[in-house]
């Protein structure tokens, strides 16, 4: 930010989601989910999984946390209609978990193990499955070298070590202590509350960019975060319906990728 730019609208504390805000990992999600499905359900033919790639990409917005992805692929490969998943994924997921007697405690460790295996055995391939959205790497480097925001964080439901590896590959010198992943085992709103207190940040100087409307809605319902500026990344894993709802509510700001790389005064 230029010292001559209007200082009326800028964050002291800027918090960014990772998947769907900074990085597009659809190819990695699909490949990793295929590997998890083949480990947990070895009788599921690989060709049935492979045929669901486009449906999996289309339905990525229904997923809130990564451990659900193999469950989504399993549902598709065993004949659950994409329309039924889009309309009521939580109910479909719950039914499938009950039928298969499986849940987060079994799926999440296998997902992380598959990713770790890729990193240890074929790092270049794994990195190549990820694509950062246009302009975001340059913008991250700009913010890290600028006086505003004073504090920049990534808060994600992905394991922090995976985010570190991806940013390192882009030559982004992001402070490791400012990457907060699922390893802390708490919802994002709780992390935001803690960061606001830690940095003694006035409510309206905390800005949060996320691509899941449900996550923003949960944050908006927290009394301690009632003044937080909440942005829905319109380039991320969300639907036209979600973007339409965000536009209708004064509490949320629909953010474009062009705005993301623009001065903060242009975010509203």
Automatic annotation (TrEMBL):
GO biological process terms, semicolon-separated: DNA repair
GO CC term (a single one): cytosol
Coiled-coil regions listed in the entry: none
Protein's name in the database: Sll0295 protein
Organism of derivation: Synechocystis sp. (strain ATCC 27184 / PCC 6803 / Kazusa)
PANTHER family linked to this entry: PHOSPHOGLYCOLATE PHOSPHATASE, SLL0295 PROTEIN
SUPFAM superfamilies from the UniProt entry: HAD-like
GO molecular function, one term: phosphoglycolate phosphatase activity
Superkingdom as given in the UniProt entry: Bacteria
């Amino acid at each position: 930010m230029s010292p001559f730019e209007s200082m009326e609208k800028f964050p002291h504390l800027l918090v960014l989601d990772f998947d769907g805000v900074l990085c597009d990992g659809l190819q990695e999600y699909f490949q990793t989910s295929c590997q998890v499905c083949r480990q947990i359900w070895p009788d599921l033919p690989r060709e049935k999984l492979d045929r669901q790639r486009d449906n999996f990409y289309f339905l990525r917005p229904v997923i809130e946390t990564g451990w659900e992805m193999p469950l989504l692929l399993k549902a598709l490969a065993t004949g659950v209609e994409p329309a039924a998943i889009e309309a009521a994924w939580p109910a479909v997921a719950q039914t499938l978990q009950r039928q298969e007697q499986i849940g987060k405690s079994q799926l999440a460790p296998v997902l992380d193990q598959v990713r770790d295996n890729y990193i240890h055995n074929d790092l270049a391939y794994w990195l190549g499955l990820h694509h950062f959205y246009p302009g975001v790497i340059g913008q991250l480097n700009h913010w890290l070298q600028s006086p505003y925001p004073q504090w920049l964080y990534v808060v994600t439901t992905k394991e922090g070590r995976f985010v570190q590896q991806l940013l390192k590959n882009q030559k982004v010198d992001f402070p490791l202590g400012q990457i907060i992943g699922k390893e802390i085992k708490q919802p994002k709103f709780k992390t935001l509350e803690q960061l606001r207190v830690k940095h003694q940040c006035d409510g309206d100087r905390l800005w949060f960019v996320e691509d899941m409307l449900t996550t923003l809605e949960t944050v908006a319902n927290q009394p301690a975060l009632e003044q937080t500026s909440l942005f829905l990344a319109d380039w991320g894993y969300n639907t036209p319906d979600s973007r339409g709802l965000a536009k209708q509510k004064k509490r949320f700001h629909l953010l474009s990728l062009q705005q993301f790389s623009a001065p903060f005064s242009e975010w509203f």
